Amino acid sequence: MPTGPQRMYMGKPHSVLAGRRSRPVNVGDTERMISAIAGGALALYGLRRGSFGGLLIAGIGAALGYRGLTGNCQLYEKLGIDSGGARRNVGNLGVKIDKEIAVNAPPERLYGIWRNFQNLPRILSQVEHVEVLSPTRSRWTLAPPVSISWEAELINDKLNELIAWRSVGSQWVDHAGSVTFQPVGGGPTRVHVSLQYDPPGGKVGHAVASLFAEDAGTKIEQDLGNFKRAVEEGRLAA
User: Fold this and answer.
1) Do residues 90 and 178 make contact, with C-beta atoms less than 8 angstroms apart?
2) CA–CA separation, 163 vs 157, rounded Å?
3) Distance (Å, rounded) from C-alpha 30 to C-alpha 34?
4) Which of 83-87, 117-121, 199-203 has the lowest mean pLDDT?
5) Domains in the chain, ordered, with CATH?
6) 132 has which bridge partners?
7) Which residues lie across from 182 on neighbouring strands?
8) Rounded Cα–Cα distance for residues 84 and 27 (Å)
9) d(CA 87, CA 20)
10) Is the dihedral of CA 120, 126, 131, 137 positive or negative?
11) Is the pTM of this model over 0.85?
12) pLDDT score, position 101
């Protein structure tokens, strides 16, 4: 009869234990600790709210807590990130999103809408406000619950073809993006959006961003669909 520590494994299928051991640890110790603490705090806060939104927050907290306890992040596996082993490249790999859509409008009209940065909150749902500071500089604020602000500068601007920008002077956000407008055979215009960022707070940011990176791509896709309908229905202009 098993004695001592062996009793802990009685009643647990071997396949379950093997499955747990087989998942690689790809999250560093500091990041795991922060994930566990932040996850517990979010879970408690969400449960106390007692609403549907609170349950979503609690779910995020539970996912962060699980990440911290197991030391495994499935998104890190997909992206080849290992902050807990020999390949410590988490600090060098940001999150990149590329999406495109065909819009039944000429490039000059679409360029004009995007070039007016004050239109961005109407296009990108995660952006709450953009304040234009100069012809080449603006201040962006993300929508709650993040509410982070930073300044961005225009780094490339080709009339009716390309707009590119990047964040400047921010210790929290390292972000760059571009949008191109390519006519397709005299018909619709192909709008291609590329966004790349290193999440705020270095490894702490990666711990949170890993939960949202795939969803962020879905949101951009939805935003572009809404943008297409707004333009084609005449509800959005430069």
Assistant:
1) no
2) 5
3) 6
4) 83-87
5) 9-79 (no CATH), 94-232 (3.30.530.20)
6) 138
7) 190
8) 5
9) 22
10) negative
11) no
12) 96
